[in-house]
Amino acid sequence: MPDRYRSILLFGGPGVGKGTQGTVLGSILGLFHCASGDIFRSIDPNSEPGRTFMRYSAQGELVPDDITVKLWAQQMCAWIEEGRYAVDRDLLVLDGIPRTADQARIMDQSINVLKIIHLVCPDRETIVQRIKRRALKQNRKDDAVEDVIRNRWSVYDQETKPVIEHYPPDRVVEVNALEQPVEVIRAVLDVIMPIWLENFAPFEE
Question: What CATH number labels 5-199?
Answer without folding.
Answer: 3.40.50.300
